[in-house]
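User: Structure tokens for this complex, please. No commentary.
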Amino acid sequence: MKQTIFTLLLATMAHVAVAQEKLILLNEGNWQSDNGRVSYFENGHVVSNQWFRDNNGYKLGDTPNDIIQVNDTLIAIAINWSNIVQFITPEGKAVAATEDVPNNRKLASDGRYVYISSYGHECGTVDGMKYFTKGYVAKIDVNTFKVVAATEVGYEPEGIAYYKGYLFVANTGGYAFQEDHEYETTVSILDAETMQLVRNVDTHQINLYGKMSQSGKYLCINSPGDYYDIQAATIVFDCEKALQGDEDCFVTLPYAATYNCTTMDGNFFAIGSRYSYYTGEYTFNYITIDPEEVMVSMGGPGVKETLPGTMLEDIKKMTMPYGIYVNPYTGYIYATDAGEFVSGGALYQWSPEGILLGKHGVYINPAHFLALPPDGNFTGIEETVPAKQDDAYIYDLTGRRVTYPQRGHIYIRYGKKYIINH
Amino acid sequence: MYNMRLRDYRRYKRQYIIAVTSLSWKTIICGVLACMCIVRVYAHDADTIALAARMDSVSGKPAETMRTLHVHASRPLATRQALSGKELQALSTTNIADALKYFAGVQIKDYGGLGGLKTVNVRSLGAQHVGIYIDGIRVTNAQNGTVDLGKFSLTTMETVELYNANKLDNCQSASEYASGATVYLRTRRPTNDSLSAQLRFASFGTYMAKANIQFARKGWRGFVDVEGLTSKGDYPFRYKSEFEDTIGRRANSDIKYARIEGALFKGGLSSHIYYYYSERGCPGGIVRRLSDKYTNVGREWDSDFFAQMSYSWQTGSHMFKVNTKYTHEYLRYCTDYPENQNTARVNNHYLQDDIYAAACYNWVPLRWLSLNASCDIRYSKLRADLRHFDNVHRLDQKQVLALQINHRGLQAAASVLHQHYKDYTRMHTGAADPLDKFTPAITLGYTYRRLSLRAWYKHIFRAPTLNDLYYTQAGNRNLKPEYTKQWNIGAEWHHASPHWNASIQADAYINKIENRIVCLPLKGTYTWSMMNYGYTYCRGLNATGNVRYNLHDWNFSLLTSLTWQRDVDRTNRESDLYDKPICYSPAISCGITGVVAWQRLSLTVSNLYVSERMWSYADPEDVLKPYSNVDVKLQYQHPVGKKAYLGACLEINDLLDEQYEHIPRYPMPGRNYKLTLSFSL
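Assistant:
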């Protein structure tokens, strides 16, 4: 009897002790409606669709556009239309906020500083206001939450990544269809410490816009083209080669990578479409890119038009795919559907093998993800190359790790579903 | 992500708002408002003369009014609401949009403030299905299809009428049949020589001056009207909820405008010339900011000119009319300001020229039969310094055949409209394919003593505008027209006696809209495009009732209106939104207005109520609260000498200082005051 109780107790404890899946999701909301929201998802259910407000008693702001973890205790959120960079703890408590970087776009960090790209033309720094003709990258000290340096890059810089002391910034020139300049084609490389421009790498592809994923030394950059004559493309970029000045440091692939992410085994998932205003026609693609293979073959093999499990079919059924993400700690896969925009979007969850585990209601325009480390210890895992590994743990269908599986229930192990019969 | 590109479509965005009601997206918002209605009594048959005569004695209006009345009076077939003369002046109205909000079935879309764009949506058809006509000639905008009602003054207007479907008169141009709902503005025909001036002081730094000179001699009548206004528009607002307490003043909501217009009439000739210039701020939504440093400044300059002329004559049973109009519109939109760090630095100029001519013919071969044919032609040209853009020319031709029967209380009207659109452009995307369509409308009515019954059906479309088809990075040349089908049954009853005057009308309707033209993000890209998407199904009821009593120097009026509507999304059966009311559409709106007048003193109190509206279905808290808007207006005119008058008018709008919105995060002004001093000779 005693033993039974003890076993049960242990089982319960194992169940609650460590949350396996912790995911923060930014819902952009409607533009100018001040309804950007944070959803918090844990172990198979949405804890809250207004997590920031629950924790702080006020609203997040208008159009949150990116989120990253800086270190064990700090998360940064770029709230674009509010012109705010908001810092919170992993528990969701607001720590600081600054409006020194207006029209902020995307974030990167080395744990000590936060680097932000901005389409704006001015930046409040510790040395006073700085003005730029084009866009810039700002460097925020997370001890003081002040901008310590800002450097001009190309027009409308978007994606930003930190690699071995350098920043890689994808320039879009996205206002080219309205402003008096052309689209950009370059990736700017900055020395993160000095914030000096090292080099601009010309990719010969215009408008390097949207989400940019990093897998170790590789970047996955989307180029939507100009929607008229120039078709969308995907660029696989080798930071190491770029630093060495190698001209063959990138490969252009004839696919769109509108939404992309890094997988557990160092590949990229990309979904997107190519569109032309001339014909009004779409070409969709759903691909898995092995950057290593692509770089070696210079665009030969390395791209598979598949996604794990049922993901592809599930995503095709979506009304408006709006984001894709792999939890770097657990390998669980997520994607969002923005739906019809006047109702809340949906968060889909798959096992690492692509078994659909659930669909959850979130808020309007769910777009940007951040997984929290299960044990609370942030390792900067986004900047390291995840090792390919076999997952010997047993999980239930909602992605929770299970220590004591029960007979007759379905679990997942080595990426496969099975039923315990013994 | 998407938003950044669209952000700069501000100019563009503003034009699509209504169309996208059920499919709102980041930039998409749409407005709504109340209604309330005042119906001028329909006078039928024998009552016509009595009423017209009475009105003459009250308003001093000449036979012209009587004739107008008679024309409408003999054809109560269309669903019509009207405001005119003293009623119009008694209401708290400064522009056409203010007057229309008193009608049943009308929603005003307003971004708040004086400078905000004001458009009108009738029975949820969308602003682009509402035609605005000045003396029977349509005010058009080939670029975006919507007309900013804030640009037209009420002081030069004699009557504001709203027809669901279209007016049914004897000699109408084809254009008059070409919209889903029709607003008629009839220019005032002066009856004497006079000179008048007005000065207005109003809340939020608003100052207005106006002068009018008019004459009526040897059959010629005319006026020149000049007006200028400046307003800071910096009204206070407050957002208070459990997670917010935001107090602020509206920024960048200022406006300056000048308007000069003149009209000349003689017999069948009417002509009108108009010029309007304005500069205004385009305020954004109130969102979280750490300070007031960045305001997303956008400014807009408008310069509009038109000259129009209409001439009609009759020989025996034949009536002829020719209309002609030239319009030139200039628009500049600029966001290139240091306080604006959030959008592209845009400084775009748009120029539109529009030439219109129509010939109409009417034949009444038999006492009970009237035949109408008309041929309209319109040439529009749009120039803009947008990138990837080239001049667009549009040739729009319309022909209509219509007949009306009026026999022993039984009435019928039927029409077939043919429209042909063809665009020319050198843009790379190419011109849209020509559009060639026939659409019908039919109306039946029966009048028994004071009761009239009516039933009508109308099928009409709106052609994609030039923005819809060609706007850089959004236009779609493959768009199909947006179709509406309307069914209506209604009844009206009236009573008129020397002291009493009462009328009631009620209409039940069903509207269907297919192939809505909306701007939607393209799946899996970072861009947007115009698309045909959406099907809405709307059932509704409009009712109005008014009572008037006059005794000696006293006049009492009570005017009421009620709209019930259920406008649902029928786009996609699989969707959670299927059969749900479309966003921004209130179930109920109603209005009540009381006017008490004694000699030259009058007091008007009105209340407009609008029930709650969802603006999104993502969260039950995404709702716009119901509101009541109470306005009070006190007017007095004091005679000075034999012919001159000094007048004063005090208005209080939103007496209860209710904070409300038509669009989330676009607060409307709360309580505000207007004092107007006038002098006339």
